[in-house]
Structure formats: structure tokens, C-alpha cells
Specification:
Strand content: 35-45%
Distance between the termini: 82 Å
Number of helices: 7
Order of helices and strands: HHHHEEEEEEEEEEEEEEEHHH
Strand order of the largest sheet: 1-2-3-4-5-6-7-9-10-11-12-13-14-15
Number of strands: 15
Radius of gyration: 27 Å
Structural class: alpha+beta
Helix content: 10-25%
């Protein structure tokens, strides 16, 4: 309990004290390091293609990467491939994430739902992580300069089974991914001449897949909306193998950073979303190796229809990370600006910025269809109240032609048929009398 109180005081001072100096930040950093040191993972860093663990940036960074059970925009491609069939609009997005040590992470992504099969979606992305690679000789002269890169391409498919008005369906999805690790050529220590193909022998290639599922329902919902306010998601990330040694003997590389995750999000009130994730890393090449789980949490508060504030906290091993950001939507373009503060990853706090821009290309007429279904339903209710049950049935059947799982129309037809049958029996009994 004492450590928790100290932790709270330190956080308050680090964020709200205008007199905080570099020395005090260093002291705070050391204190936080002492608090979280017992949670350090001795097996951390034993996997390859580490860029697979970096979020795209923007919204997900601001929410502390708590997105497995939320997945409400195109960033689902990174966290839960099942959420594609739940996206409202076709989206194209660009992400920029300024990572540590002058490294950058860039992503181009796309997702859409089919018009004739509205519960089926597809999409994909390509990401590139790169960091400057510079080699110096024993005299301090630069003899080679290039970039170390990790490039990942993915294709996504998702389908929402049995989606209706009451039961929102079970969404399943998968990503198929390929990755390339590019190591630049380096020099011969004796002549300082670059050895052709030397980088290729240390480059690598990986094939893997992601799998996910997501459920939606209503619980403790204090606002009116067709959209459910609770989502629960599960995902398995980076299931596959990698190889290295191109140009020589191809060998199995270190294990990929495979993870199993569970997430939960709830929206009690329309402006407020809370999300939480639990992530368990696994080593597919050595199941006996225990890896520490980590936790992500985030909150989103919508001030207006086009401005939201986001904040998050992530605890991975001994590294707590705080993040915050804003989301703006102007003329069907959604912009995210994120700031992250990592307090224990180095002797000095690491400040990072990430950005994203999403172009919203419409819903292919799905909202118009929903409006037409509502119109038919309301007209059917009018006929029903006037005891024109045949007319009500006819109108509700038109609604079902547009949405065969619109449960209020199905229930209305059943009730109208019951009324017709009941009055028929009453009429027949009166005729017998």
C-alpha cells in the first residue's frame, strides 16, 4: 500500500508540477524503476521481428494499446482481425510512429465491407520499421551507412455470423502475414571495404497468421443507440516461423513474438469508452519458457461530434507507459495526435509522438438501408395499432427483404399472425353459437 501511495504522488508531481526539473524527473524515474523492478521479465527480447509488437500509432497508442476488445477503427488489423466485419465505413489510413533511438514505424492500411455481403469484410496493410545503421572503423571514421528494416505485409478477412438486431453476432477473422528483415551490408575490418551480400546472410523471412473473435452485446447502457455498448475480444497474434541465412544455409530463426490476448470495452454513456487488455506472450519453440503477461488500459472521452480526448496506461514487465492524445474529424478525415511517456525504459524518460490520418469513404449505403428498414417497421406498427394486421405483415416482410435478421419485424409478424388466428377462432366460435 505504501508503494502505491508513493507511486501516485510521483505521477502527480511528474505531470502537474511546473517546478519539476530534469533532476527531479531522474529521481522519479529511479523511484518508479524500484517499484516495478520485481516485474521485470528475464526472457524479454528473446524473439525476432520485434517490430510486430509496435502499435500502428495514433488512436491505439493514446489508448495504451488496449484495443483487442475495442477494435472500433482500422487499427483492428494490428490487434484483433475479427473486428473488420464490425467497421461502419470503408477506411484508408496512414500511420507514423516515432519509436525509440531514431527509429520510425510507418503503416499504410485499408479495410472495407462488401456491399452484397454486408457482414463480410476484407483489408490489409503494409508496415515498415526502419532505423539508421552506421558502421565506424577503429579511427572513428564512418565506413558504411544504410538502414536496418523490418517490413510486414498482411491480408485480412472477417465475417460476423448470425448478426441481427438483438444478438449482434459472433465475428471471426484472420490475418495472413509475411515479413522481411533487411540487414544492410557491412565492411571487412581489414580493408574497410563493404562485403557484398554480407547483410543478406543475416536477413530474415517470416510467415505467420493472426486469429481473432469478437462478441457484442448491451449491458448497463444508459443511452439510445443501435450499436451495442460492450465488446469482448480474443486474439492470437504472430503464429508462425521465421528463417535466416539467405545466400548460405537457410536455418530456423529465433521464435516470433507470439501473443494471446483478451480484451474488454464498455460504453456506459455515449461520450465515454473504457477498454482493458490482458496479453500473454508465448514461445512457440519452447513452451516451457515463461514470459510475463502485460496489461493495457485506455479511456476515450468525446467532447463534441468531432473532438475526443484519449488517455492510456500500459504495464509491460517493469516498464510503465503513459499516453494521451486527441482525435479530430473534419470532412470525413479522422486525425489522431498521440504523446507517450515511458518512465523506466532508460535513465531519462523517453518521449514519443505518433500520428495517424484516416480517410472515411462511406458505408456503401448501409445506413440508408437501415433507415428504410426503420421506416417500414414504423409503418407496420401504425397498421398493427389500427388492426390492419395483413398490411402490417406485408410491410414488415419488405423490411426483412432488406435485413433478414431485423428481429423487431420478425417478432411483429409473429404477433400479427397470432392476432389474425385468434380473431379467426373467435369468429368461428360465434358462428357455431
Amino acid at each position: 500500500m505504501k508503494k502505491i501511495r508513493i507511486f501516485g504522488i510521483l505521477i502527480f508531481l511528474s505531470f502537474f508540477s511546473p517546478a519539476a526539473s530534469a533532476a527531479s524527473l531522474s529521481e522519479i524515474n529511479n523511484s518508479l524503476g524500484d517499484i516495478f523492478a520485481p516485474m521485470a521479465d528475464e526472457n524479454e527480447g528473446a524473439t525476432t521481428f520485434r517490430s510486430l509488437l509496435i502499435p500502428f500509432g495514433g488512436r491505439t497508442e493514446s489508448l495504451g494499446s488496449a484495443f483487442t476488445g475495442l477494435g472500433d477503427d482500422i487499427s483492428f488489423l494490428r490487434f484483433n482481425p475479427a473486428a473488420g466485419s464490425l467497421q461502419k465505413e470503408t477506411q484508408i489510413a496512414l500511420f507514423h510512429n516515432s519509436w525509440i533511438a531514431d527509429s520510425k514505424f510507418e503503416t499504410l492500411a485499408f479495410t472495407t465491407r462488401f456491399q452484397k455481403i454486408p457482414h463480410l469484410s476484407t483489408g490489409g496493410y503494409i508496415s515498415c520499421f526502419y532505423i539508421p545503421f552506421t558502421e565506424y572503423n577503429i579511427f572513428g571514421d564512418r565506413v558504411a551507412a544504410n538502414y536496418y528494416t523490418e517490413t510486414v505485409g498482411a491480408l485480412n478477412i472477417s465475417y460476423n455470423f448470425l448478426a441481427g438486431y438483438d444478438f449482434k453476432g459472433l465475428s471471426l477473422g484472420a490475418n495472413v502475414k509475411a515479413a522481411w528483415r533487411g540487414m544492410p551490408d557491412y565492411t571487412d575490418n581489414d580493408s574497410n571495404a563493404i562485403i557484398s551480400g554480407s547483410g543478406l546472410s543475416q536477413s530474415g523471412f517470416a510467415l505467420m497468421g493472426d486469429f481473432g473473435l469478437m462478441l457484442q452485446f448491451n449491458f448497463l447502457k444508459f443511452y439510445n443507440s443501435r450499436d451495442p455498448n460492450v465488446r469482448i475480444g480474443f486474439s492470437a497474434q504472430n503464429l508462425g516461423v521465421s528463417f535466416t541465412g539467405f545466400g548460405k544455409k537457410l536455418i530456423l530463426d529465433d521464435p516470433l513474438p507470439t501473443t494471446f490476448g483478451a480484451g474488454f470495452s464498455i460504453q456506459f454513456f455515449k461520450p465515454l469508452i473504457i477498454s482493458v487488455d490482458y496479453i500473454q506472450p508465448v514461445n512457440l519453440q519452447d513452451f516451457g519458457t515463461f514470459l510475463m503477461p502485460y496489461f493495457n488500459s485506455g479511456i476515450s472521452i468525446q467532447f463534441t461530434s468531432f473532438v475526443s480526448f484519449l488517455a492510456g496506461f500500459s504495464l509491460k514487465g517493469a516498464n510503465p507507459r503513459f499516453s494521451t492524445g486527441f482525435e479530430f474529424e473534419v470532412l470525413k478525415i479522422r486525425l489522431n495526435l498521440n504523446y507517450s511517456l515511458d518512465l523506466t525504459s532508460s535513465l531519462a524518460p523517453v518521449n514519443r509522438i505518433s500520428l495517424s490520418a484516416k480517410i472515411l469513404l462511406g458505408d456503401k449505403g448501409r445506413s440508408l438501408i437501415d433507415s428504410k428498414v426503420d421506416e417500414y417497421y414504423q409503418l407496420g406498427l401504425k397498421y398493427y395499432s389500427e388492426a390492419k394486421w395483413e398490411d402490417a405483415i406485408a410491410v414488415w416482410q419488405e423490411a426483412l427483404k432488406l435485413n433478414k435478421r431485423f428481429d423487431p419485424a420478425i417478432q411483429g409478424i409473429q404477433s400479427a399472425r397470432y392476432q389474425i388466428e385468434m380473431f379467426k377462432q373467435i369468429k368461428e366460435s360465434l358462428m357455431l353459437d
